[in-house]
Design a protein that fits this description.
about 400 residues; alpha/beta; Rossmann fold; 2 domains; 6-stranded parallel β-sheet; 15 helices
Length: about 400
């Protein structure tokens, strides 16, 4: 089976690119070739994209699958073009940011980028009814859609007006990794916390710093028994966007937080091969994401996180805010959820981990079971059934 893959791929630095690369490898091991139809990736400019797509021999493919999300529109436009010009081709997509497919108009003129930010945002809001209509039209034309959680599936179906049978939930796949023992648990060793993911605004890292500062105020000396690692990738266009250098902002926040006795380690732009050792050197991953107030005008984003997938693969629990679909992902005994933006609640969750080391071990064990159930070979088998059903060869999923 040969499927055209419409997706970003490394060396692009994004969670979706990393997902697509792992997905592609797993499918190849099942004999399913996910092949980018265009060398160098999809042009994001509509006219260039249409010309490039018209040059492809689509008879060489059994279907086309897109990874939708991350603020990109080229994959959406490619699916629209295929629905118009190759109506017999089975079209599928994984929607990473449900309840919408793209969240903004997919083909804005070049001059739009020159508008003042506030005016551009108001324009996106004004055009949203037309964007939503295009999303719903395309969603109906796809053979099947995939979300990474049941929460995302429910939201996508409701917003796009789809039947439940049109959307399948397949959890984020993860690597099969050998188990590693937890570091010495408190009080024999420090509580080792890890933030892991791309480092830019919206990830709530400042809430984590404030929570630790609050604990130090409430329980003097707490910071001395705690170690924090801030790790992950940086994207210059996001790390420096809107208000200066976010890394400098975090460093300043840490200096002002009264956490001089906290053991702090920065691990930026970690190589993929080093990720398991990094995560397994800690007790708990902390993901204090906040949802975008701007996106709330357009809908509710209910995607998940590749970092949580890594936590499960590595057998480590998580403390996560209730942003996105994290509440579902941390509902397997593998962690704790708190209300996003509630710093005292985050501080309380951290304190309970420090005070109840058995909870750390229980979360790690549950995470390990979850990781074993979600290894990429099993995930790939489910996707193969999706592709077969989209081509009219499979049974109901």
């Amino acid at each position: 089976m040969r499927i055209a893959l419409l997706a970003p791929l490394p060396p692009e630095q994004s969670g979706i690119a990393d997902y697509a690369a792992a997905f592609r490898q797993a499918m190849s091991e099942l004999g399913v070739a996910l092949t980018p139809p265009l060398a160098g990736g999809l042009p994001q400019e509509p006219a260039r994209l249409a010309k490039a797509l018209a040059s492809v021999d689509w008879t060489a493919f059994d279907g086309a699958h897109a990874e939708l999300g991350g603020g990109r529109c080229g994959e959406f436009l490619a699916l629209e073009w295929l629905a118009r010009h190759r109506p017999g081709l089975a079209l599928t997509a994984t929607v990473h940011d449900p309840e919408r497919l793209i969240w903004r108009p997919p083909s804005l003129p070049a001059w739009w980028r020159k508008l003042p930010p506030t005016l551009a945002k108001l324009g996106v809001l004004a055009l949203d009814p037309f964007t939503l209509r295009r999303e719903r039209t395309l969603a109906e034309q796809l053979s099947l859609l995939v979300t990474l959680t049941e929460t995302g599936r429910f939201r996508l179906c409701r917003r796009m007006g789809l039947a439940k049978s049109q959307v399948v939930a397949i959890a984020h796949g993860n690597r099969a990794l050998p188990p590693a023992p937890l570091p010495p648990l408190p009080p024999r060793g420090p509580l080792r916390l890890l933030y892991f993911g791309f480092v830019y605004r919206g990830k709530g890292i400042e809430d984590l710093i404030d929570a630790l500062a609050l604990l130090e105020q409430q329980r003097p000396g707490f910071a001395a028994g705690c170690a924090l690692t801030l790790a992950g990738g940086t994207q210059p266009d996001m790390t420096f966007a809107g208000g200066g250098d976010y890394l400098d902002f975090l460093r300043r926040r840490l200096r002002e937080a009264g956490l001089a006795r906290l053991t702090l380690d920065w691990r930026l732009d970690v190589e993929a091969d080093a990720i398991p050792t990094l995560i397994q050197s800690c007790h708990v991953m902390v993901l204090p994401y906040r949802e975008s107030a701007r996106l709330a005008w357009l809908g509710q984003q209910r995607g998940t996180s590749g970092a949580l997938s890594w936590a499960a693969a590595c057998g480590r629990g998580a403390i996560a805010s209730n942003a996105r679909a994290f509440a579902e992902e941390v509902s397997h005994g593998n962690g704790v959820v708190y209300a996003q933006g509630d710093v005292p609640a985050l501080a309380d969750a951290i304190a309970r981990m420090a005070d109840q080391p058995a909870r750390i071990a229980a979360c790690a064990e549950a995470a390990s079971r979850l990781g074993q159930a979600r290894v990429w070979p099993s995930t790939a088998e489910r996707f193969k059934k999706v592709f077969l059903r989209a081509q009219g060869q499979g049974e109901t999923l």
